[in-house]
Every structure is written in C-alpha cells, then in structure tokens.
Write a sequence for this structure.
C-alpha cells in the first residue's frame, strides 16, 4: 500500500470508529450551498476508456430548481456523465461541484447520495426480491448507518409518506408485490418512486420513459415537471416528443461534449444539431 | 362513511408488532425448528440421566455427544447462511473462525489441567514443557479465567473477521475472488498452527482436557450441562440471526446481495454493512467452535483444513440457503449421513459429498427445504387446473 493510500485507509478507519461511536451520525458531510443559484458545475470533464474519449472536455451548468433535458445520439456520453456526477466513474480531467462547497470528485457513491443527488438508472434497477413497499422503505431519506438500520422502526409519518409515494407512482395495489414481478414500465415508476423517497436536491433521470406506454409517458412528464422548482432535475431522453413536452432548456451532447444548448426551438434549428441527427440516421 | 370505517383498520396496521411477531411472522419453519430444539434440549438430558441404562429409551453418552456436535455444526451453518444466503458473501474459510473459537476454549481447558499433566507443571501445559519453554507466552495469559476465555472465544474470531473484512470489502473484493482469499486465510492459519513455535501445541493441538469450571468433563452431569448450553446457544444464535435478517438492516443486506451498486447510490455504505455482518457471523462461528471442543475433547490444526469450510457451504446448499432453518436441516442431515457412511464405507464419503452437492445444485437449487413449498405450489396449480376442467 502506498503512503497516501495508507493514510487514507487510517483516516477511513478513524471515520468508521467515529461513526460507530456516535452511532452512525454522518461524519460532517459538507452542506449544499446554493448561494449562486447553480446546483451543478461540470467543468472540462474528460473520461477515457482505453484511449477512447467518452467525455471530452465537457462543461455544463445546471441551475437550482431547473428542469434540464439532455439529448444526444447513442454513445454521446450521457450515461457516462451521470456516472461521473454520482461517483461511479472518476474523470481523468476536470472538476465537478455540487453547489458552491461540495467537490463531487472527492466523495464516494453513498456520500454523494447523502449530500443530495439521486439517480434513476437507464436500465431499471430495483431490488427484485423485495416488495414494492420495501423498495421504497430502503430508499427513504435519513441516516443510513448500520446501527440505525439494525434498530430502525417505521414511524407513522414514514408509513404515510410511503403510501403517498405509492399513490403518486400508481403502484398502490402492488405494494406487497415482489418488485421483480413488475412490468418494465412499473419498474421504471418504482425507481422514480425510490427517487422521491430519497428526496434529493438534484435528480438524475436516465431515459425514464423507455418501454412506457404513451399514457405512462405522459404521466411521467407531468411528474417530472411537478418536481422541478423544489428539486433540480436532469433528464436524459431519446424520445423527442417527450423532451418537447417538458423541456425548458435542452443540452445536446455529441461525442462527449456539448454541441448546442438552448430552448427546444433554438436547438432544433441549429445546423450543427441537424447535421448530427441526420448523420446519425435521424431521430 | 368509508373513511370512518377505514381509520381503525389503518391504525391497527400501523401498530408496532411485538418482538416475537416481528421475528416469527410468516415463518412457520423457524417456529417449528425452535420448538424441536427446545424439546431436544429438554428431552435428551432426561433420556440420558433419568432413564436407566439398559432401558431401550436410554440415550448413551456417545449419542448425547453426537447430537451436541450436530448442534454445533448447525450453529456454524447458520452463521455461514447469514452471510452467504442473505448477503451473497461466499466464505470458504468459516471454519477458521470456528477453530479459533475452539482454540480459545481449548486454551482455557488446558490451563484447567494444572498439575495433573504428565510433567505436572502448575502453569505450563505439557507441550510447552516438552518444548523446553520456561514461561507462559503472553497470549496465554488470562486464559485460566473462564470469563476472559469466553470473551476471547468471540473476540478473536470477530477481530480477525473485522480486519480481514475491512481490507477485503473496502477494496471491493467480491465473488469468487473473495471466496479464494477466504480459503487462503484458513490455509495460512492451518500452516501457522501446525508450527510448534506458534505455541498452540503444533500438530497435536490441545487435548487431554480434564475439567471445566473445576468440574470433571467425564461426569454425565457436566456432559449434559454442555449439551444444554449448546442447545441454548443455538437457539439464541438462531434468534439473533432471525432478528438481524428481519430488521431493516437485514433488508439492506439482501438489497446489497441483489444489486450492490444500486444500494450504494441510495446512500448505503455497502462495505460497512458487509463488514459488520461478516464479523457477527464469525463470532457465531467462534461460539460454535468453543462449544464443540469440550464435547469432542480435542482441537488441532486439522480444523483449519480448507475442505472443512467447503463442507459447511455444502451443508447450507443442501439444506437450502437464505432461510436459516435450511442451514440447520442441511447441517444435521449431511452430518448424520456422514456419521453413518464413514462408519460403513469410510473411503466413499468425500465422493458421496461431492455427488450430493452436484445433485442438489442441479436439481434442488433451493435445497431440501425448498422442496416442500415447490411441491405445494405444484399441487395447488394441479388442483386449480382440475377444478377448471371440472367446470
Ligand atoms: N465502462 C466502459 N468501458 C468502455 N467504454 C465505455 C464504458 N462506458 C461507456 N463506454 C463508451 O462510452 C461511450 C459513451 O457511452 P454512454 O455514456 O453510455 O452513452 P449514452 O448514454 O449517451 O448512450 C460509448 O461509446 C460507450 O461504448
Ligand atoms: Mg445511456
């Protein structure tokens, strides 16, 4: 083990001990500071996979309370961008800040979740052996330390909150169902419900309407629009009609960097965008 | 109107369940197991002590020890199922913790021998006198105190598991790699404990125990006390595991098993969850080992053999993983088969075990305890079909 690795290890060990001693109170997680009204700063982010640049000097700013749509052809780097924000992938270059104070590149996945970033995956990933209710319970905001969970009891308020979310995502009649037995669209909804339970300041939503019926798509759009304002929402989507129905600002990603940004109308009339999309087979 | 009807029912639903309900709700097999365990723990002493020898109902001391051994194995199997069945951590080194608990108990029993050893040294065990050691090594200090030794029984396995798990889980070692390093761990301990200089009796291990708490181990009463203690520990250990898997912690652990990275993105520190579960499991294994040693009368490095750990995993697979009671069923049945088979055809056992494992993996993925529910489901669908046809 190298010296910095060792030091990091000792530090983490200390943190673990500290956490155990104070029964898991989160160790001084930095607070979200929105004094400049920007919730997410990505600057000069570059990610290479074996020399291939999935993200290439990507810069992007998301305002607090904004609903932002990210579009772009397959392989543009949209999912990779979310991986960087949530700590799954570390960039080779660049910086990523959550508000004024939180340096995302120094935090682990659970720490990033704790400061207030929630994510819905492109491929819906719910806990398939757990019931719908338990999935929401697991996603519930709050202290998630080992000791708390060992003695956790559900309060009536938490119960009501879960009922509320079940209502919102239309899975009230499926509360006891195994999550693995749900249809694709229902799983998508359950994952959105898990996001709601987490109650994050920033929601990253990767292709939420894939596999949904038009009615389900419409309801998803309504839900995401209703979330904006109180939360900031970043939606990645292929479905242009869907994007048109919800977007205020659209960012077009192409080959790992921002190609265009603006209102849907501006973006659609941008010659660069037209070229990329026509060249890609047209969407 | 409707709301008024609804309100009381809602309240009742939100009323917190009692601890017993929480533990045993929807879990008939666990209740059944604990009942059987209670009956055995009460009945065996009666059949051994009260029913006179010669009566058909009399239970020999051999049988008492055998059942006691099975119960130790059952506790070990439950510990393995807790991490494998519920968290997907396939430890192929769990008998290392079992053996360490056994050694801690063995050290206490060695110190109880006192001057009755061959060399009659009041402090040093025979093997140390034989090695020409003049002083008790530091790690043998305090082991003459029962309470201290009992703490060490769970502390040493727990500490090793904590350090090992801390290194492994933080580096995100999972799956087959983790299984391999657990095998390496137990193998390394096997080699170390074989060495005389380690101070644990080398090849011969620790044996020739005389007393426990000043009472002769050969007395029927002491044998029975050990047996009852084993039954009680198995019961409480099972209960504790049941509590753990039924708590929200347990649901998180199962979530980690099914979608580890998802759990991270929700905000769970996966490595801490694995670490504490693994440590707790190792402590249970240590306890099982400590109960095992005075009943069989010996602990030697052979207990660290990698094959032993693999056998435990087979018990759990055969019984049915992820249920706890399946682990008990597997441990008892496989070991009973082993007792019978090694008596009749000693060379065949390992092949039989291997074959059993293959058969179970191929045909009974949920193990023996999975057969009944599956059968019931099949019968139900058959009935349904017949009812439909009749209509
Ligand atoms: N782990 C990885 N290893 C190698 N290449 C990857 C990896 N993840 C993504 N890529 C590549 O990076 C590019 C961007 O992928 P992705 O972010 O998934 O695109 P999008 O979500 O916009 O469709 C793709 O060409 C993909 O093949
Ligand atoms: Mg993608």
């Amino acid at each position: 083990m190298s010296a910095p690795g060792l030091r990091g290890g000792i530090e983490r060990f200390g943190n673990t001990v500290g956490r155990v001693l104070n029964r898991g109170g989160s160790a001084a997680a930095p607070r979200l500071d929105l004094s400049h009204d920007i919730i997410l700063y990505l600057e000069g982010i570059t990610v290479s996979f074996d020399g291939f640049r999935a993200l290439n000097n990507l810069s992007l700013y998301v305002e607090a309370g904004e609903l932002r749509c990210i579009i772009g052809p397959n392989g543009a780097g949209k999912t990779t961008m979310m991986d960087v924000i949530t700590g799954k992938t570390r960039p080779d270059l660049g910086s990523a800040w959550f508000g004024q104070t939180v340096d995302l590149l120094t935090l682990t996945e659970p720490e990033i979740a704790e400061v207030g970033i929630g994510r819905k995956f492109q491929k819906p990933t719910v806990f398939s052996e757990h019931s719908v209710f338990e999935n929401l319970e697991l996603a519930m905001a709050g202290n998630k330390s080992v000791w708390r969970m060992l003695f956790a009891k559900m309060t009536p308020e938490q119960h009501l909150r879960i009922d509320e979310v079940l209502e919102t995502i239309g899975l009230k009649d499926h509360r006891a169902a195994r999550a693995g037995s749900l249809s694709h669209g229902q799983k998508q909804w359950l994952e959105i419900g898990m996001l709601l339970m987490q109650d994050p300041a920033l929601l990253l939503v990767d292709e939420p309407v894939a596999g949904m019926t038009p009615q389900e798509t419409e309801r998803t759009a309504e839900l995401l629009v209703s979330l904006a304002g109180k939360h900031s929402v970043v939606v990645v989507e292929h479905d242009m009609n869907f994007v048109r129905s919800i977007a205020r600002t659209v960012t077009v990603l192409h080959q790992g960097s921002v190609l265009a940004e603006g209102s849907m109308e501006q973006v659609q009339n941008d010659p660069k965008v037209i070229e990329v999309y026509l060249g890609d087979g047209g969407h | 109107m409707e709301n008024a009807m609804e309100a009381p029912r809602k309240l009742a639903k939100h009323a917190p369940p009692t601890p017993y309900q929480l533990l045993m709700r929807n879990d008939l097999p666990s209740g059944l197991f604990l009942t059987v365990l209670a009956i055995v723990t009460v009945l065996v002493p009666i059949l051994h002590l009260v029913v006179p020898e010669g009566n058909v109902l009399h239970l020999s001391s051999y049988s008492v020890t055998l059942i006691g051994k099975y119960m130790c194995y059952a506790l070990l199997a439950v510990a393995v199922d807790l991490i494998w069945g519920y968290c997907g951590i396939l430890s192929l080194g769990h008998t290392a913790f079992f053996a360490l608990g056994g050694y801690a108990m063995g050290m206490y029993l060695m110190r109880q021998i006192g001057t009755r050893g061959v060399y009659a040294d009041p402090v040093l065990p025979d093997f140390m006198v034989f090695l020409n050691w003049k002083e008790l090594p530091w790690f043998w200090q305090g082991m003459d105190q029962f309470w201290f030794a009992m703490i060490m029984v769970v502390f040493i396995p727990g500490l090793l598991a904590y350090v090992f798990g801390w290194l492994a889980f933080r580096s995100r070692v999972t799956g087959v790699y983790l299984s391999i390093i657990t095998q390496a761990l137990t193998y390394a301990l096997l080699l170390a404990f074989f060495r005389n200089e380690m101070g644990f009796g080398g090849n011969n291990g620790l044996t020739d125990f005389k007393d426990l708490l000043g009472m002769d181990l050969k007395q029927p009463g002491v044998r029975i006390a050990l047996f009852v203690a084993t039954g009680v520990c198995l019961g409480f250990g099972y209960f504790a595991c049941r509590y753990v898997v039924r708590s929200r912690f347990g649901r998180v652990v199962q979530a980690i098993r099914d979608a580890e990275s998802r759990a991270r993105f929700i905000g769970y520190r996966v490595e801490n969850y694995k670490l504490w579960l693994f440590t707790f499991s190792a402590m249970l294994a240590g306890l099982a080992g400590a109960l095992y040693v005075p009943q069989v009368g010996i602990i030697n490095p052979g207990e660290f053999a990698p094959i032993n750990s693999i056998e435990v995993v087979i018990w759990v697979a055969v019984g049915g993983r992820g249920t706890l009671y399946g682990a008990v069923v597997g441990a008892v049945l496989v070991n009973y088969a082993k007792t019978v088979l090694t008596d009749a055809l000693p060379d065949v056992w390992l092949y039989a075990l291997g074959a059993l494992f293959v058969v179970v993996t191929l045909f009974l993925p949920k193990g023996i305890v999975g057969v009944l529910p599956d059968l019931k489901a099949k019968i139900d669908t058959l009935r349904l079909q017949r009812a439909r046809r009749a209509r």
User: Anything to note?
Assistant: Strands of chain A lie at 38-49, 52-63, 67-71, 93-98, 102-103, 117-120, 202-206, 232-236, 249-254, 257-262. The interface with chain B takes residues 9, 12-13, 16, 19, 86, 88, 108-110, 113-114, 118-119, 121, 125-130, 134, 137-139, 144-146, 149-153, 156, 159, 194, 198 of chain A (CB under 8 Å).
